[in-house]
Batch of 2 targets.
Target 1
Amino acid sequence: MKLFLTQQIDSIKVDASNWPLYVIIGLSILLCISLFFIIILISRNKKMESEKKNEKRNNLPSRQAIDPEGRKELEIKELKNKIKDLEESNKHLTKIIEDKKEIDKEIVEAKEIIEDEIAPTIILLDVESSTDLPKEKEIFYVNKVSKEGRFYLSSLTQSCSENSLYKITLIDDNNATFEFINQTKSIKYSLDIPHDILFPVCEQIEAFNQEAKAIITQTVGKLIKENDYWKVIEKAKIKYD
C-alpha cells in the first residue's frame, strides 16, 4: 500500500493549480484505506458471531476447546450431578425395600392370626356341618308281596330290575315308605293279578282299569318293621292312566 501511494505521489507534479485533483486523489486513498479496515472488522465480527453460535449450540462455555482446565471443571460438575442423582435413586430404592419388608412382616403376622384363630374355627365349622348333614336314605326294591301286606326282608334288593314291583325308602331303622314302580313289566304283571300284587298294599282312588298303561302312586304308603318283614300300616294310594 505504501509503495502504491509513493508511486502515485511521485508521478504527480506539484502544481498549485491542480489542487482539486490532489484533494480527490487524497480522498480516494482515504476511502480505500477505510474500506480495507471495514472489511477486516466485518470479517472478524462474523467469525466471533459464528464462534458464539457454536458455543450456544453445544451448551459449552466459551474457549472450552482451548481451555483444558475449564473442560475438566465442567466434567467434574457433571459427574457430581450424576452422583447426586444416583444417591437420590438409591434413597428411593432403599425406601421401597423397607416398605416391602414391612409388608412382608404384616403378611406373616396375618398368617399367624389365621392359623391361630380363624383356621381352628373353620375346622370346627366343617366338623359341625358334616355332622349336621342328613344321612342319605337307604332304598330297597322288592318283587314279592304277601297277601297279608308284608314285604319280607329276604326279598329286598338294593338294585332295581325289570321285575321289581315296589320301591321302599327307609326313614329310620324301624320306619319306611313305599311306592309302586311304574315300569312296563311291573304294570302288566300287576294288572294280571291285582289281588296278589296291588290290592294287599295299595288303595285305588278310582275304579280298577285292566287296560291301563300306567299305575301312578298318588300318596306313598307307610311301613313299620316287625321281626323279619316290613308291615304295611298305611296303604299307598294309586290311580290308573
Target 2
Amino acid sequence: MIAAETEQGLTRLGILFENTLPYSPYQNGKQEAFWGQVEGRLLPMLEGVVDLRLEQLNEATQAWIELEYNRKVHSETGQTPLQRFLNDKNVGQPCPSTQQLQLAFTLEERRLQRHSDGTLSLQAIRFEVPSRYGHLKELAVRYASWDLSTVYLADPKTGAILCRIYPQDKTKNAEGRRAPRNSEQSPAEPPAPAGMAPLLEQLMQQYAATGLPPAYLPQPQNPQNPS
C-alpha cells in the first residue's frame, strides 16, 4: 500500500513508480545492499548510546555516510562511491523547491460547494470558497491528509493551483451577520454596437438601385393634426 499523496506526487514530478514483489529483495538490490551496511555497520556503533534522540541519529548517519560510506573503496568497481559518482555521466535532475515538493505531494479530490454560505467540507472541516468561484458546483481540492493547514483549489483540467482556502471562522459565522457575496471580477463592458449586417446593407443598396417605389406609405417625421 502507498499513500495517494505519494502516488500523485511522483506522477506530477515525472517519476515512474513500480512496486516490487513481496519477499523479492533481489528486485531492489541497491537499497537492500545499502540497508545491509546500515544495519551491519552504523547501528552497531550506536548500540551503546542511551536514549538515542532523532537529532543524534540524523547527525551520526550524515557523518557516517559522508566520511566512511562514500569514501570506502568498492570491492568490484575499485572506486569509492563518491569517485564513481563524480567520474560517471551526470543523469541527475535539479531538485524542485520545498514549496513545489509540498504542492506536488498532495491528494486531489472533488468536493461539492454549498452555495448557501460558499463553503466546502473536507474531513469534517468546512473551508470558505472565494467569491469568484461561487458559481461552481464542484471544485477540485488539493491537500495532504496529514496537514489540513494548507488546502488549495486547483484547475481540474491542468492541475494548476488557483488559490489557497482557509477554514471557516466559526466564531464569526455564529454571529449571524453575512457579508454580501459580490464577485471580485468587475462586470464586463457591453460590446459596442456592430451596426447593420453587411449582407443587409448590400440588399438595401441593390433594391434602391432598381428605382422601384417602396411597398409601404412612408409617414412624415412630424405629423400635424388636421384642424
